[in-house]
Write a structure and sequence with these properties.
Chain B: Keywords: Membrane, Transmembrane, Transmembrane helix, Transport. Chain B: This is ABC transporter permease. The complex is a heterodimer of chains A (about 550) and B (about 325). With about 550 residues, chain A is α+β, with helices and mostly antiparallel strands. In chain A, about 30% of the residues lie in helices and about 15% in strands. Chain A has 17 helices and 23 strands. In chain A, α9 runs antiparallel to α12, α14 packs antiparallel against α15 and α15 runs antiparallel to α16. The longest helix of chain A is centred in the N-terminal third of the chain and has 28 residues. The N terminus of chain A is likely disordered. By secondary structure, chain B is mostly helical. Chain B has a single domain, classed as MetI-like (MetI-like fold). Chain B has 15 helices and no strands. The chains are: A alpha+beta (about 550), B mainly alpha (about 325). Chains A and B meet through α1, β10, α6 and α13 of A and α2, α3, α5, α7 and α8 of B.
C-alpha cells in the first residue's frame, strides 16, 4: 500500500517536473526565424504568401472557385494575356486572332511548338475540348454557338449574335489538355493533384497544408524566360501574420493590405522595398436604391453626390491610395476611353464637392431645410441608411465620411454594418436604402455600363438580383450597349462608349466615388524585374491573368 | 453498470438533438454560399458566374425534410459531403488534415495549464497566506484578463521578432518533410511552444483559483483534522486526502475543456498562422459553407459528448457517492 501511494506521489511530481522541463527545453531549441531571407544562390524560390488561405488543399482544378494558388497563373495559360496596367494584349498560346467582319465569329491561330508539361503537343482539339467542358460544367458563354477546329492550329468560335467583348472572355480563358481531362469521370469533382499544363511552373513538390513548391515545366514553350528556379507558396490565416512575414523579409511579394506601408515596410530598406498601387481596380460606387423615393430623382442623386467630399474619402478612408471618380463613372483602367468633352462640360459638376450647390439643388428639387434638417415631400425627416459589410473596415470609414458630408446639407445618415451576408441579402432583394458597392471591371467599359445602366439586368424588388442592385435602367443605354457589343472596330466602340459616358453624366445611375487600387508590394533583394509605375507591364497582383507576365520576367539576384 | 447505460441513453438523445440543431442553424443564416462568394470577390467575379457556380456546386434545392433525412443518413455513413468553400475537396479531408494540429496544440496547452494550475492551487490553499497564495492569484488573474489577441501578438513580437527565439508561424519549417525523426519533432515542438504558452498563460489562472477555492473548503473538513491528528505527513494529507476530494470540479472542467478544444483556438491560429480547425470554421461560417460547418460542428458535438461521458465514468471511479445514487 505504502509503495503504491508513494509511487503515485512521485508520479505527480514527475509530471510536474517533466512539464517544466519540456517548457525549458523547447525554449532552448527554438531556432528563430529561418527563411528565404538573403538567399541569392540563384536557386532561390520566389516566395509568395496567400493571406486568405489558412491552409492549402491539394486542388489544382481550375474550374474550382477556390482553386490552389497559381493554378491559373503558373500552371494553365490562356490564349492571350490582357494586362490591366497598360491595357496591352500579349499573344500567348495564340499568336494572332481575327474577328469576322459581321462580328459573328473569331478565329485564333495557335502558337507552334507549345507542349504540355508531359511532352504532348498542344492542339486546337484541346481548345475545343476546354470550351466544351466549360459549358458543360459551369455554363456561361451564352453567345457562343459552336467551337470548331478547321486544322490542328486554328480554332474558330462562332456566335449566335455579334458580340465583340467575347475576345477578352475567350482569349483570357485557361486551356486544358484533352488527353488528361477526357479520361476523368467527373471533372467538376476532380482535384487534379498532379496538374499537366502549358505554364512555366507546373510541377507540384513538397505539398504540405501550409506550403508547397511549384517547379519548372520541363517542356515549357519559352524556356529562355524560366529565369527563376520555382515558386514557394505559403499559407496565412490573415493579413497580420502574412504582413509580419513580409515586413520581416521572408517573402518576396505580397498582395495583402499593409497599413502605413511607408513606415512599416519601405523605411526598413529604402533601396529594396517597394510598393506600387496603380488604380486599376473596379469603380467603387455609392449606390442609391432607385426604387425608393427620393432616390428615383436624378436631381437628388446628383445633389447628394455633390455633398460628398471625394478627396477626403480617398485621402482618409483609403489612405491616399485611391483616385477620386468623375462623372463618367469610368475607373482608372479606362483612361483611354474617357471622353474629355463630357468630363469638361458643366454637366459634369455633380461629382465635384460643393456643399452650397448641393443644398441649392436639394432646395430646387423640393426638399426644404428647416432648422438645419431637411424634410421629404411627405413632411418626414430626410434620413437614409448606408449599409456596408462589417468586414470592410475601409468602406465603413467611407460611409462615415459620407454621413458627415450629408449632415452638412441637413440629411441624417445612419451607417449600418452587419455581416456582409446580411448586407448582401438586402442588396440582392432591393430592400436597402444605399450602400458602398463595387462594379464590373472588364477589359472594356462594356461590363461596367451594362452592370449599372442596362434595363436587361434590372430585377424587380424582392426578386434576387446579381448586379445592378440599385435597379436602374435606361432604354437609351441599352441601345448603346448593344451597339457597342456588336461593333467590330474600335472607332465605333469608342463612339458608343462616348455616348454611354454622356448618358451616365445625365442619369447619375450610381454615385461613383473612387477607383480601387490594386495592392502590391515587393522586395528586390532576391528577384529583380518587377513591374513599376515606369514599366507598367502588369499589376503587382499575384492572382490575376497578368501574373504570368511577372513570372516570366523576374530574374534571380546572384549573390 | 445501469448508471452507465442510462447515461448512454441520455447521450444518444443529446447527440440527436445537437445533430438536428446542427442542420437547422446554418440554414437560418441569411444569404447563400454563392452570393457570399460573389460578395467576397467584390467585383472580380462576373454576375453570370453566379449561375455557373450554382450549377457546379449542384446546390440542394430539395425540401428541407428531404435534406434532413439525407443529412442524417450521411452522418451515419460517415460521408460528410463536399466542402463548398474548398470545392471539390471532401469535408472529411479538410477536417482530417487540420484536426491533428488542433489536438496537438489543444491537448498540450490544456494539460500543461490544468496540471500547473491545479498544483499551484493545491499548494496555495495548503499554505494559505504564504507567498504562493498571496502573489500568484492576482498576478495570474491580471495576465489572464489581457485580451488574448493582444497577449499573443505581444509574445510573438517579443519572443519571435525582437529576440528571435521562436519561429514566427506555422506548425513546422517550410521545406521540412514530416516524419518521425528527431529533426522534425524538435521543429514541431519549437513551433508549438509560443502558441501553447500564450494559451497556458491566459488559462492557468482559472485552474489555479478553482482548485484553490475548492481546496480551502476541503481543508476545513473534519477528516483533514482527523488525518492531522493521526500524525500523517502533511504532503500525504495534502495530496491523498484533501486534493483528491477537491479535484472533482476540476475533473469536470477538464472534461468540458477537452471537448471544446476540438473547436480549435481561432485567435491562436490567426496570430501564429498555426493550422487548425478554428480558422476553417470561421471560413466556413463566413462563406456559408454548410457541409463544412456541419462537419466541424458534428466533430465538436461528438467530442464534447464523448469527453463528458468519459468524465462521468471517471467520476464514478473517483467519487463513491455517485455510484450509490
Amino acid at each position: 500500500m505504502t509503495s503504491s501511494r508513494s509511487a503515485r506521489r512521485s508520479l505527480t511530481a514527475a509530471v510536474a517536473v517533466a512539464a517544466a522541463a519540456a517548457l525549458l527545453l523547447t525554449g532552448c531549441s527554438g531556432n528563430g526565424a529561418a527563411g528565404a531571407a538573403g538567399d541569392t544562390s540563384r536557386d532561390q524560390l520566389l516566395t509568395v504568401p496567400r493571406e486568405d488561405m489558412g491552409t492549402f488543399t491539394r486542388n489544382f482544378n481550375p474550374f474550382s472557385p477556390k482553386v490552389g494558388p497559381m493554378t491559373k497563373e503558373a500552371i494553365y495559360e490562356p490564349l492571350m494575356v490582357h494586362s490591366p496596367a497598360d491595357g496591352k494584349d500579349t499573344p500567348w498560346l495564340a499568336t494572332k486572332w481575327e474577328q469576322a467582319k459581321d462580328g459573328r465569329s473569331i478565329t485564333f491561330t495557335l502558337r507552334d511548338g507549345v507542349k504540355w508539361s508531359d511532352g504532348k503537343p498542344l492542339t486546337a482539339a484541346d481548345v475545343v475540348y476546354t470550351f466544351g467542358l466549360q459549358k458543360k460544367l459551369l455554363g456561361g458563354f451564352d453567345y457562343l454557338d459552336k467551337v470548331t477546329a478547321p486544322d490542328a492550329h486554328t480554332v474558330t468560335f462562332a456566335f449566335n449574335k455579334p458580340f465583340s467583348p467575347s475576345v477578352y472572355e475567350i482569349a483570357g480563358h485557361f486551356i486544358l489538355p484533352e488527353h488528361i481531362w477526357a479520361k476523368i469521370k467527373d471533372p467538376a469533382k476532380f482535384t487534379n493533384p498532379d496538374p499537366v499544363g502549358t505554364g512555366p511552373y507546373t510541377k507540384v513538390e513538397k505539398f504540405e497544408s501550409q506550403s508547397f513548391e511549384l517547379r519548372k515545366n520541363p517542356s515549357y514553350w519559352q524556356p529562355e524566360k524560366q529565369h527563376i528556379a520555382g515558386l514557394r507558396l505559403l499559407a496565412f490565416s490573415g493579413n497580420d501574420s502574412a504582413n509580419l512575414a513580409f515586413t520581416n523579409g521572408e517573402v518576396d511579394w505580397t498582395q495583402s493590405f499593409v497599413p502605413d506601408i511607408e513606415k512599416s515596410f519601405v523605411a526598413k530598406d529604402k533601396k529594396h522595398n517597394h510598393y506600387w498601387f496603380p488604380a486599376t481596380g473596379a469603380m467603387i460606387n455609392w449606390q442609391l436604391n432607385t426604387t425608393k423615393a427620393p432616390f428615383d430623382d436624378p436631381a437628388v442623386r446628383k445633389a447628394l453626390s455633390m455633398a460628398v467630399d471625394r478627396d477626403k474619402i480617398t485621402k482618409v478612408a483609403m489612405n491616399g491610395y485611391a483616385n477620386p471618380a468623375d462623372c463618367t463613372g469610368l475607373a482608372g483602367t479606362y483612361d483611354s476611353w474617357r471622353d474629355a468633352s463630357v468630363v469638361n462640360s458643366p454637366s459634369c459638376d455633380w461629382t465635384k464637392h460643393d456643399v452650397k450647390a448641393a443644398a441649392k439643388a436639394l432646395d430646387a428639387a423640393g426638399y426644404k431645410e428647416k432648422g438645419g434638417k431637411r424634410t421629404l415631400k411627405n413632411g418626414k425627416p430626410f434620413t437614409l441608411d448606408i449599409s456596408v459589410g462589417s468586414a470592410s473596415s475601409d468602406w465603413i470609414s467611407v460611409a462615415n465620411i459620407i454621413k458627415q458630408n450629408l449632415a452638412e446639407v441637413g440629411i441624417t445618415a445612419n451607417v449600418k454594418s452587419p455581416d456582409w451576408a446580411a448586407v448582401q441579402t438586402t442588396y440582392d432583394m432591393g430592400t436597402f436604402d444605399s450602400g458602398i458597392v463595387w462594379s464590373g471591371n472588364g477589359a472594356t467599359p462594356y461590363e461596367f455600363y451594362r452592370g449599372v445602366m442596362s434595363t436587361k439586368v434590372v430585377q424587380p424588388v424582392n426578386k434576387k438580383a446579381t448586379e445592378n442592385y440599385h435597379r436602374f435602367g435606361d432604354k437609351k443605354a441599352d441601345q448603346l450597349i448593344d451597339a457597342f457589343a456588336a461593333a467590330t472596330d474600335e472607332k465605333t466602340q469608342h463612339a458608343k462608349a462616348d455616348g454611354l459616358q454622356k448618358l451616365f453624366a445625365e442619369d447619375a445611375p450610381v454615385v461613383p466615388l473612387f477607383t480601387g487600387p490594386e495592392w502590391g508590394a515587393y522586395t528586390d533583394t532576391r528577384f529583380t524585374g518587377w513591374p513599376t509605375a515606369q514599366n507598367p507591364y502588369a499589376t503587382l497582383s499575384n492572382r490575376s491573368v497578368s501574373t504570368v507576365l511577372i513570372l516570366t520576367t523576374l530574374k534571380p539576384v546572384r549573390g | 453498470m445501469r448508471l452507465v447505460l442510462r447515461n448512454l441513453g441520455f447521450y444518444l438523445l443529446a447527440f440527436w438533438a445537437s445533430l438536428t440543431l446542427n442542420f437547422l442553424l446554418p440554414r437560418f443564416m441569411p444569404g447563400d454560399p454563392v452570393s457570399r462568394m460573389f460578395a467576397q470577390a467584390q467585383g472580380s467575379m462576373r454576375p453570370d458566374q453566379i449561375a455557373q457556380l450554382q450549377k457546379l456546386f449542384g446546390l440542394d434545392h430539395r425540401p428541407l425534410w428531404e435534406q434532413y433525412l439525407g443529412y442524417v443518413k450521411s452522418v451515419f455513413t460517415g460521408d460528410l459531403g463536399i466542402s463548398i468553400s474548398r470545392f471539390p475537396t471532401p469535408v472529411s479531408d479538410v477536417i482530417g488534415s487540420q484536426i491533428g494540429w488542433t489536438l496537438l496544440l489543444g491537448i498540450t496547452a490544456l494539460i500543461t495549464a490544468a496540471v500547473l494550475g491545479n498544483l499551484l492551487g493545491i499548494v496555495a490553499a495548503w499554505r494559505r497566506g504564504g507567498f504562493l497564495d498571496s502573489a500568484f492569484p492576482p498576478l495570474l488573474v491580471f495576465v489572464g484578463s489581457f485580451p488574448y489577441f493582444w497577449l499573443a501578438m505581444g509574445a510573438l513580437y517579443l519572443f519571435g521578432v525582437t529576440l528571435g527565439w521562436f519561429p514566427l508561424r506555422h506548425a513546422y519549417d517550410v521545406g521540412l518533410t514530416p516524419g518521425l525523426n528527431g529533426e522534425f519533432l524538435s521543429n514541431v515542438v519549437s513551433h508549438l511552444f509560443l502558441p501553447a504558452l500564450t494559451i497556458v498563460l491566459v488559462s492557468v489562472g482559472g485552474w489555479m483559483l478553482g482548485m484553490r477555492n475548492s481546496m480551502i473548503a476541503t481543508n476545513a473538513e473534519d477528516y483533514i483534522t482527523m488525518a492531522e491528528a493521526k500524525g500523517l505527513s502533511p504532503s500525504r494529507i495534502m495530496f491523498r486526502y484533501a486534493a483528491r476530494n477537491a479535484m472533482l470540479p476540476s475533473v469536470t472542467n477538464f472534461g468540458m475543456a477537452l471537448g471544446f478544444m476540438v473547436g480549435g483556438a481561432l485567435l491562436t491560429e490567426v496570430v501564429f498562422a498555426y493550422p487548425g480547425i478554428g480558422y476553417q470554421l470561421l471560413n466556413a461560417v463566413q462563406g456559408l459553407d454548410y457541409p463544412l460547418m456541419q462537419g466541424i460542428f458534428l466533430t465538436i458535438t461528438a467530442a464534447v459528448l464523448l469527453a463528458n461521458f468519459i468524465v462521468d465514468l471517471v467520476h464514478v471511479r473517483l467519487d463513491p457517492r455517485v455510484r450509490v445514487r
